[in-house]
Structures are given as C-alpha cells and as structure tokens.
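User: Can you predict the 3D structure of SnoaL-like domain-containing protein? Sequence below.
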Amino acid sequence: MTTHLDHIEIGLLVSRFFRAMDERAFPAGWARDHFTDDARMVAPVGVFEGAEAVRGTEEAIRRFARTQHMASDLLTDVDAASGTARASWNALMVHIHHEGEDPLFTVGGRYEAELRRTDEGWRFSRMAVEALWTTGRPPVLTPA
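Assistant: Sure. Here are the predicted structure tokens for SnoaL-like domain-containing protein:
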C-alpha cells in the first residue's frame, strides 16, 4: 500500500539530492543515502554505475565556484516497492576560472528517476538528467 507519505518522502529525496549539489554536502555515505548499490545515472557529464560511482557527480559539481539547482513540477508515481519521479530543473552555475569573461553558465532540463523502497527508505535506482537548453559557456569536460 502506498500513502501520501511515500510521495512526500520521494520529494524530500529529490530536494536533498539537489541541495547536496549546491551545498557541496558529500559526507561519507552520501551516495548510499540517495542511491541503491546498483544505481545507474546518466547525466550530461557522464554515465555513472553503482552507488559509489555516482559520487562522480561530486567531481563535476566542483568545476564550479557556486551552483544553484531548482527543481519544479515534481510528479511521482509509487507502488508498494518502486516508484518514479519526473521534474523540470534549472541550474545557475558560476565558473571558477574564466577571468575577463562572464562566469555564469545556466542550464535547464528535465530529469526522470526510478526509485526503490529499501529498508532505509526510498533510494534512486536509475536517474536520467537531460539538458534541454543552455546559456553561457559550458564547462570543459575532460575524458575520464
């Protein structure tokens, strides 16, 4: 049986994920607090496999001096053991090293996630982050 509480808990997980990016809050255990051990994340900065591999998002976010992510229009569907979440998002990002240039990079898009109920609560098992538009100079992505 699902309840309104399930939708609230998934919404909080989404908010905590984006907040962690902006606050650079990546303590030990961060990945497992958000993702299942077999999680897969597809993002503009790469594809990450497994909960610990998702920590690669930390490296990507540290390419900026500051970021502000905003998610909106969150829609969730849940059943007893799994769920989905979809939302729109915008991110304002300030480059670290772009002297003499506008340091602001802005991107907007959508994200879709599959979630699994675990003994510790809801966790992302799959996430796809898609950029639909950008303004400003994008970050330089170096191959891993």
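The mean pLDDT is 89. The chain is about 20% helix and 50% strand.
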